[in-house]
Amino acid sequence: MKTLRSKLLLAMLSIALIITVLLSLVSVYFINVSAKDTLKSTAEPLAVQAAKNFDSTISSYTNNIVSTVKSDSFFRGKN
């Protein structure tokens, strides 16, 4: 009787362990998918906006330099 009880207990513990591992793997997978989707929907637009702002700033600086060089206020060095 004692060995049957031990075998049943071992079988139940094994089944519980297998179920726990499977549920953990499934939850980790879905957390990973959710994190990727969240980053794609929040961080990607922010990165695109920051890149556009950076490009706009560089373009503005370039235009300022070009207009300064073309204007009469730019003094040439002596030869």
Structure overview:
This protein is an all-alpha fold and 79 residues long. The chain has one helix spanning 2-70. The longest helix is centred in the middle third of the chain and has 69 residues, at 2-70.
Biggest β-sheet, characterized? none
Class based on secondary structure composition and strand pairing: mainly alpha
pLDDT < 50 stretches: none
Topology as H/E string?
A: H
Hey, roughly how much beta strand do the residues contain? under 5%
Taking Cα atoms only, what radius of gyration do you get, to the nearest Å? Answer: 33 Å
- Global morphology: rod-shaped
Number of DSSP helical runs: 1
| Helical amount | over 70%
Distance between the termini: 109 Å
* Mean pLDDT rating: 88
Number of extended strands: 0
Features:
single chain, 79 residues, mainly alpha, rod-shaped
What topology emerges from the helices and strands here?
Layout: H1 2-70
In short:
With 79 residues, the protein is mainly α. 87% of the residues lie in helices and 0% in strands.
